[in-house]
Input
Amino acid sequence: MKVTPARFNIFMFFKLPSAWWSGVRLHEINSEKCIVKVRYRWINQNPFKSMFWAIQGMAAEMTTGAFLTREIESSGYNISMLVANNTAKFTKKATGKIRFVCDQGIEVKNLIKRAITTGNGQTLWLNSKGYNEDNVMVSHFSFEWSVKLRK
Output
C-alpha cells in the first residue's frame, strides 16, 4: 500500500478502528514530516473536559509509525516494526483540534537503510509533539521503534 493520507485513513478504518472512531486522521506525510490531526469530541474525552491521553498517544504514535510504514513500503524489503518503549509529557489540556507533528523523516529513512545494509535489528527514538489551535504544545510523546529485516 502506498502511504497517502487517504489510503492510510481507509486502512485505519479496517485495521485500527478505535483510532478511526476516535477521530484520529493522517493529514499530511512527506519525506521530512508527518502530521496527524484529531479533534476533541465526546467520544475521546476524559472526565476533566479534555482529550483522553490514550487518544493523544494514538495520534502521536501514528505520526511516527506512518513514517516507518512509508519507508518500509518504498524499500521493497520485508521489515518488521515494533514499539519497544515510549514516554509522554503533558503540558496543557488538549481541547479543540490537536495537530501532532513528527519531523524526523530523514532519520527514519536512514534507519531503514541501516537495517537493510547490516541485516541487524535497529532502534530509533522518534518524537511527536501535539499542538492546539493556538500553536501551544499540549503534549510530547517519544517512541522507541525497533525494526528488523525479515529473512
